[in-house]
Design brief:
This protein is mostly helical and 206 residues long. The chain has helices spanning 11-35, 38-45, 49-55, 59-79, 87-104, 106-117, 124-147, 156-172, 174-181, 187-204.
């Protein structure tokens, strides 16, 4: 559906749009933006390329729609960090939520990872505004907890970065983790949660 068509989408158009986005998520998460093609997305969606182009004018438009639609979901765990909660438990809950997202949404994680690895050319605005502002606010919360002696002194920004790295690894490098552990099921996520809880408790305890 083009920008020129200002009519509200019909239920069929909404369904087709969602089918395309779901198919594109799989293709982009596997091949990245540069490696993905409209032909691959159309094939995964079970549509012809001309039919796909009726809903989205370009590969970039599909990619941007995916990233924009997922941004609120991706930032929700950090939004949930409660300044009035128990500091250590709030941070551990954030670790758990991020790890659960890696378990439940590996394709979405790889989509973001691929975009960042390319320098975030289609998402730089969101990173420089929405994400930066949110991280800065939560870093101030963490700094306040440190100043109050409620958790051990750590760099708040790098604490958040470390949580991203240690949780999203299980989605972005899923094949490597499963190969090394010789696992086909998801039991390693439970082990990872226990390990990360121990790690951060030791790091954060004053």
């Amino acid at each position: 559906m083009t920008d020129a068509d200002s009519r509200p989408p019909t239920p069929t158009q909404q369904r087709k749009t969602q089918i395309i986005l779901d198919a594109a998520l799989g293709v982009f998460s596997m091949f990245g933006f540069r490696g993905a093609t409209l032909d691959q997305i159309a094939s995964a969606a079970g549509l012809s390329k001309p039919n796909l182009l009726y809903y989205f004018p370009s590969k970039e438009a599909i990619h941007i729609a995916l990233l924009s639609g997922l941004m609120d979901t991706w930032l929700a765990p950090l939004h949930a960090l409660d300044p009035d909660g128990d500091p250590q438990e709030e941070i551990l809950d954030y670790v758990r939520r991020k790890l659960q997202m890696s378990r439940d949404m590996p394709r979405e994680s790889r989509l973001f990872a691929n975009e960042i690895l390319q320098g975030a050319p289609r998402f730089e605005g969101h990173l420089a505004t929405d994400l930066r502002a949110l991280v800065d606010r939560k870093a101030e919360v963490i700094a306040g907890w440190i100043e109050a002696g409620k958790i051990a002194p750590v760099d708040p920004h790098h604490l958040i970065f470390s949580i991203w790295a240690l949780t999203q690894h299980y989605a972005d490098f899923d094949a490597q983790v499963r190969m090394v552990l010789n696992r086909q099921d998801d039991s390693h996520f439970d082990e990872a949660e226990a390990f990360l809880e121990t790690l951060y408790i030791k790091l954060l305890t004053p």
